[in-house]
Write a structure and sequence with these properties.
By secondary structure, the chain is α/β, with parallel strands linked by helices. The chain contains 10 helices and 9 strands. The chain has helices at about 5-20, 35-50, 75-85, 95-100, 120, 125-140, 150-165, 195-200, 200-215, 220-235; strands spanning about 1-5, 25-30, 50-55, 90, 145-150, 170-175, 240-245, 260-270, 275-280. The strands form 2 sheets. A 6-stranded parallel β-sheet has the order 1-4-3-2-5-6, sandwiched between helices. Strands 7-8-9 form a 3-stranded antiparallel β-sheet. α6 crosses α7 and α9 runs antiparallel to α10 (about 220-235). It is globular and about 55 Å long. The model has no long low-confidence stretch (mean pLDDT about 95). Bound molecules: pantoate.
Length: about 290
């Protein structure tokens, strides 16, 4: 395994793999602080691709003022040790100036999809995500890039940007990995005390109940959102920010539910920590077995 810090070196290594060796490349973009959720993406990349690249870059452009950029957990030594066990070929861990050189002034904004839900609470967040993902996809030019369904809105935005900008990578979205309690794995769970982690598990219980109710025939969106709201609000340690049911591709808010792919998304605070989670309804299964079921 080689750790690459320079974008030019990463590009030339990837070019060689594609052109001279005719091997497929899988990219798993991360911000480090790796957990089982990331590792599930790495495992799938390993299964599907000849060469696996994991990027580790805490992207300043996706953090707003007052957010946790400075304190975001960073431990490249630990991340490297974990990835060695997974037979990863390259870690791309650039310093900030390799991604955003002096005078950087070009940003990618996926309009419409970026301004709602997380985009309302975190203005500019998805512009930062879309920009860094575009740069990473351009540097590595992977055949496949892997993302988690936990960040459901992010996955939808990235799919749209790849389509709109005609990028030559296929986006694979894999199911959310959960703690035994049902809490979605996230690097930010490190901020939670054990009792807060327990309390936060109500988010998944509420989403699972809503999904079960949909499957039992309920087609009024407001009934499902109310159910989620009531369950979460009954847990005093968790403060709900939003619950919303949307079309799984356009993020159009829905009240009359039908058989199309849809997503119920939640954001909530536990103390100062903002947690997001979602569940999909009628997610389409991909031919290789991967699906976006949460
Ligand atoms: O999901 C994340 O960890 C980040 O948003 C990503 C996709 C690595 C971009 O910085």
């Amino acid at each position: 395994m080689e750790i690459i810090n320079r974008r030019q070196r990463m590009s030339s290594v990837a070019r060689k793999i594609r052109r001279e060796q005719d091997r497929t490349i899988g990219l798993v973009p991360t911000m480090g602080a790796l957990h089982e959720g990331h590792l599930s993406l790495v495992r799938e990349a390993r299964r599907m691709c000849d060469v696996v690249v994991v990027s580790v870059f805490v992207n300043p452009a996706q953090f707003g003022p007052g957010e946790d950029f400075a304190h975001y957990p960073r431990d490249l030594t630990k991340d490297t040790a974990l990835l060695t066990d997974y037979n990863v070929d390259y870690i791309f861990a650039p310093p900030i100036e390799e991604i955003y050189p002096k005078g950087f002034s070009t940003y990618v904004n996926v309009e419409g999809l970026s301004e709602q839900l997380e985009g309302t609470a975190r203005p500019g967040h998805f512009r930062g995500v879309a920009t860094v993902v575009t740069i990473l996809l351009n540097v590595v030019r992977p055949d496949f890039a892997f993302f988690g369904q936990k960040d459901g809105q992010q996955a939808i935005i990235i799919r749209r940007l790849v389509r709109d900008l005609a990028l030559d990578s296929e986006i694979i979205v894999l199911p959310t990995v959960r703690e035994d309690t049902g809490l979605a794995m996230s690097s930010r769970n490190l901020y939670l005390k054990p009792e807060e982690q327990q309390a936060a598990a109500v988010i998944h219980r509420a989403l699972a109940k809503a999904k079960e109710t949909y499957r039992a025939g309920e087609r009024h969106g407001a009934k499902l959102t109310e159910l989620v709201r009531t369950m979460i609000e009954a847990e005093p340690r968790v403060r709900l920010d939003y619950v919303s049911i949307m079309d799984g591709e356009t993020l159009e808010k829905l009240d009359k539910l039908d058989e199309r792919p849809m997503m119920i998304a939640v954001a909530a605070y536990v103390g100062k920590t903002r947690l997001i989670d979602n569940t999909t309804l009628n997610a389409t299964k991909k031919k290789d077995g991967a699906s976006a079921q949460a």
